[in-house]
Amino acid sequence: MSLVRCVEVARTFGQGDRAVVAVHGCSCDVEAGARIAIRGASGSGKSTLLHLMAGLEVPTSGSVSWPEFGESPADRARQIAVVFQGPSLLPALDVLENTMMAAVLTGTDEAEATERALAALKTVGVTGLVNQLPETLSGGQAQRIAVARALTLRPRLLLADEPTGQLDELTGRHVMDVLLAAADELGAALVVSTHDPTVGDRMTEHWEMHDGRLLVPARGGVG
């Protein structure tokens, strides 16, 4: 059962002499329950590919489809959650409000969104921070809350872009523990981009990106 299918997908930023091809003709499938690490150096195109899978970027050529999620962007938004690489919390909102935000924006009523957010914050171990603003948080705390926000969607596909890239080893290990446990509990597919071999080793499939080109083992084909 394919959740995301990319067929000869390419993404170019800019035009003319300034054009940069971030992704070159990638083809791949993410199946239900998958545990995939996309490994590669910084600038290899990993983030852009994840954004294409999430529907946050539109391909310059090729196609991205979501066979199990329907055609509506709103339906996809309720089933795909993204943990971004850099800071992504809104500075004017406290931790609870930031954690609720994704669920509220995709149509969950406020009471249920609050319940989901509190449960997710407990899962990632930061329930004591619910009233704090992002400026008071450490990098590790902020990343845990970003993970909690994604979990409030109860997604079928969880995409994490370098989720441990700015964390110390211990905190990074905990964030991966949370992501893997949450994916197991939700029955969700998990795709993680990383250049950290210790993160990649915890996943069952290993894809490689080099200069925007994706190398996928035989099960998913080669793009």
Automatic annotation (TrEMBL):
InterPro entries tied to this protein: AAA+_ATPase, ABC_transporter-like_ATP-bd, ABC_transporter-like_CS, ABC_transpr_LolD-like, P-loop_NTPase
Keyword Nucleotide-binding: yes
Residue ranges of every copy of the ABC transporter domain listed in the record: 4-222
SMART domains given in the database record: AAA (SM00382)
Record key words, sorted: ATP-binding, Nucleotide-binding
One function term, GO molecular function aspect: ATP binding
Entry protein name: ATP-binding cassette domain-containing protein
Organism in which the protein naturally occurs: Kribbella koreensis
